[in-house]
Specification:
Structural class: alpha+beta
Number of strands: 15
CATH class: Alpha Beta
Strand content: 15-25%
CATH architecture: Alpha-Beta Complex
Bound molecules: 2-amino-4-trifluoromethylsulfanyl-butyric acid, cobalt (II) ion
Number of domains: 1
Largest sheet: 5 strands, antiparallel
Shape: globular
Strand order of the largest sheet: 8-7-9-14-15
Number of helices: 5
Length: about 260
């Protein structure tokens, strides 16, 4: 499978989609307070998506492991949940929770995908540090991404930084190329493996990648709940997730999922 490079015109369309994704995430960040349900956050995201005549990318996605298609427009992953938590009117946010919100749309044929982890009310120092380290791992990738660097060099720096902080990188889920479709080539792991080294890529101008480190406070083991979607840590400790869609430019990269 080939990596499709995007023209300046296509990147402009992805920048538009990315702006909407960022606006929705910052709106949800405003609303996410103790007592609010994740179902309510989902409804706000759906409404904002409809307002700009975009398509919510996650709603209806089928997974080989899950019988029901994903029901939400957003993923809401609380505390030990790593990714793909299902928003629900039954799930109320509590003081001290940390919640990953992941959201993606297609607008005028082009996709953008981003995620943030938020603290609900006052959170513990250790959860704050987990969130800060995860965000910084993404910032490392953004700072290094440029033409003629191999992805494995960036993945190595992210992994080293996270492990030196005493946390672990999730291995079962990785970032991805993005364009007309949410998931395109290449795979964008946040760690180095023999697999990555054997299919390593040089970044080039026009590549657009969704970079999304998922970092666990404890060990890197994951399991999926009976709902077929929610991925949790095996050891029950907390996890954080940040994601941006970035375009490789002449001399670096541009973050497309900004408001
Ligand atoms: N950001 C996630 C990803 O890139 C979101 C997928 S959620 C799903 O894979 F519901 F669409 F699967
Ligand atoms: Co993604």
């Amino acid at each position: 499978m080939a990596i499709t490079l995007k023209s300046p015109r296509e990147i402009e369309l992805m920048r538009k989609a990315g702006g909407v994704v960022a606006d929705v995430l910052s709106k949800l960040e405003e609303i996410a307070k103790p007592g609010v349900t994740t179902g309510r956050l989902n409804n706000v995201a759906l409404q904002m998506t409809a307002d700009v005549k975009a398509e919510a990318l996650f709603k209806g996605v089928c997974s080989p492991y899950a019988k029901p298609p994903f029901p939400g427009a957003i993923c809401t992953s609380i505390n030990e949940q790593i990714v793909h938590g299902i928003p629900s009117e039954q799930v109320k946010l509590k003081e001290g929770d940390i919640m990953g919100i992941d959201f993606g749309i297609r607008l005028n044929g082009y996709c953008a995908d981003a995620a943030v982890t938020l603290g609900i009310g006052e959170i513990s120092k250790s959860n704050r540090r987990l969130m800060d380290v995860t965000k910084h791992a993404l910032d490392i990738a953004i700072a290094k991404a440029s033409p003629a660097i191999r992805w494995s060099e960036i993945a190595l720096q992210m992994q080293r930084y996270v492990e030196a902080a005493g946390f672990s990188v999730v291995k079962e889920f990785v970032g991805h190329g993005i364009g007309r479709k949410m998931h395109e080539e290449p795979k964008v792991p946040n760690f180095v493996s023999d697999d990555l080294l054997s299919e390593d890529i040089y970044l080039t101008k026009g590549m657009v990648l969704a970079v999304e480190p998922m970092i666990n406070a404890g060990t890197d083991g994951t399991m999926t709940l009976k709902d077929g979607w929610t991925v949790v840590t095996k050891d029950g400790r907390c996890s954080a997730h940040f994601e941006h869609t970035i375009a490789i430019t002449e001399n670096g990269c541009e973050v497309l999922t900004v408001g």
